[in-house]
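ARCHIVE RECORD
Type: protein–small molecule complex
Small molecule: adenosine-5'-diphosphate
Source of inputs: curated submission
Record status: active
Notes field left blank by submitter.
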Amino acid sequence: MAAADQIKSLIKSFGQSDDARFFSTALQIAATEAQQGHTTFAQELKKLIDEAKNGRSLNQIEKKAIQINLPKRELQELIEVFQPKISLKDMVLDNSIKLKLNSVIKEQEKWQLLKAHNLEPKRKLLLTGAPGTGKTMTAQAIAGELGIAVYIIRLDGLMSKFLGESIAKLRLIFDAMNDHRAVYLFDEFDSIGSHRNQHQDIGEIKRVLNSFLINIEKDKSNSIIIAATNLPESLDKALFRRFDEILEYPLPDKEHIIEIIKKNTKAFSFSTKVNYKELSEIANGLNYSEIVRICEETIKEMILNGADKLEIKTLKSLLKSRNIVNG
Ligand SMILES: Nc1ncnc2c1ncn2[C@@H]1O[C@H](COP(=O)(O)OP(=O)(O)O)[C@@H](O)[C@H]1O
Ligand SMILES: [Mg+2]
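STRUCTURE (tokenized, with ligand):
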């Protein structure tokens, strides 16, 4: 049985919303039980505590935000938090990228084992490539695979909204990484990673970039840090060696175009036989995002026309006109 003062401390910390004290007392109780030979009960407690911690972590970041007087609405524009349900299987990826991502996930699934052997699991990734090739989606898929939350941080917003305070805000985000194991995606990374920036205050950008470099270097958390950029050539070379893995996302080739079309129309059938090779030629040059959206448009057309089969000519003409718009 837990000691009287442990129970009192639990109730007090609950009343004061002191999560840290609550969890440390609960762990003490588990430890006491284990010492008394009640190992099953101690393990059950430990599991309950872990689950409760996960459940609380999203609340916590919101609280932190309030503590630093960041208006909630503004924070929501800059940092999006959620628990993705997608996995890597939902993506169409180059083989080399797939291999690297699978290796990251494998190491992350066993991160405690690696740490116990003084080994660092890979967890700092730089994703580069054209828009609509799956960089943001990758961060979500990794979080989905690991069953943890993803924080999507809009750096361009951080830079423009909090000019002069961006470093302090950045520090806050890196602090959160220690408290909440999650995937942290620094999206639109070029807004600080670039040395050719049109921003007015170049000095501020340099300071933020430096602070990012120091933070990422010093970071010893168990979180996964991902930076994504459409403009790798404009990145400062000093950045590259801070990452464990650099992944380059290409536009889909013809096989991948066929795969993404099949994936996104698989719940339906076409009214006529599909020449996928022809489709892949028409769609050549489009990114994944554009192709996915065109598949959705084709499905919508079918529904609005009261039909029950997809029209290949709708899909073809949408792909063609998109490619013309793109030039
Ligand atoms: N490799 C991919 N596999 C499957 N779907 C993709 C892929 N890349 C992009 N998409 C689709 O396009 C949308 C936008 O992609 P996103 O990850 O935001 O691209 P990026 O961050 O590279 O600009 C995704 O939500 C998804 O529907
Ligand atoms: Mg993106």
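CURATOR ANNOTATION: DSSP finds 16 helices and six strands in the chain.
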